[in-house]
Amino acid sequence: MGIFDKLFGKKPEIHAESVSAINLAENQVAAVVTGEAVELKTVKDPVFSSEMMGKGVGIIPQADQVYAPVSGTLTVAYPTGHAYGIQADSGMELLIHIGVDTVNLEGKHFTTNKKQGDKIQAGELLGTFDRQAISKAGYDTTVMLIVTNTDQYQDVKPTHLGQVNSKEVVLEVTK
């Protein structure tokens, strides 16, 4: 926050962003992007499809904005903008990975609004990506949303597959 923000209050855009935050139960995870939710086992990356990183869902994006799926702390924000790690206030650990092998783009076609250590609210904009440019460059744009500490839960399952809007509940965890 700059000196003018301290003197004159928050900018309207910041206030509007906090208003857009969503309320979730501790066991719920929101979709990070609008698109088609698919079983993680169907994504074209064996690290994710084998559930080696944990259980979750893939979303074939129909939009370029990535939103926080839970409230918590951004524990990892890759400089390339292709992935985020989040420690939810509930203790759940999440990975958002935008595309398959997109780390090779070295940040091209990605922007991020957050940095490691930032507190985030569910539904808050984390960053954007240019899915058309990424696809044109030869990369799969599927966004993976993974609960990386799956072993601490009885179950991690999609609430529904098919069309989802960002900020809608897409995963539920059972302790």
Secondary structure topology:
Elements: H1 3-8, H2 12-19, E1 28-30, E2 35-39, H3 46-49, E3 55-61, E4 65-67, E5 72-77, E6 83-88, E7 93-98, E8 110-112, E9 119-120, E10 125-129, H4 131-136, E11 143-147, E12 155-158, E13 162-164, E14 169-174
Keywords: Kinase, Phosphotransferase system, Sugar transport, Transferase, Transport
GO biological process, one term: phosphoenolpyruvate-dependent sugar phosphotransferase system
Main location: membrane
In which order are the strands of the major sheet placed?
A: 9-5-6-7-11-3-2-13
Helix content: 10-25%
Q: Tell the overall outline.
A: globular
CATH superfamily: Glucose Permease (Domain IIA)
Strand content: 35-45%
Q: What is the rounded distance between the termini?
A: 38 Å
Could you explain the architecture of this structure?
By secondary structure, the chain is mostly beta strands. It has helices at residues 3-8, 12-19, 46-49, 131-136; strands spanning 28-30, 35-39, 55-61, 65-67, 72-77, 83-88, 93-98, 110-112, 119-120, 125-129, 143-147, 155-158, 162-164, 169-174. It has one domain: Glucose Permease (Domain IIA). It contains four helices and 14 strands. 37% of the residues are buried. Residues 1-8 and 10-19 have low confidence and may be disordered.
Write a short abstract of this structure:
Its main location: membrane. By secondary structure, this protein is mainly beta.
Keyword list:
disordered N terminus; eight-stranded antiparallel beta sheet; single chain; mainly beta; three-stranded antiparallel beta sheet; 14 strands; Glucose Permease (Domain IIA); 175 residues
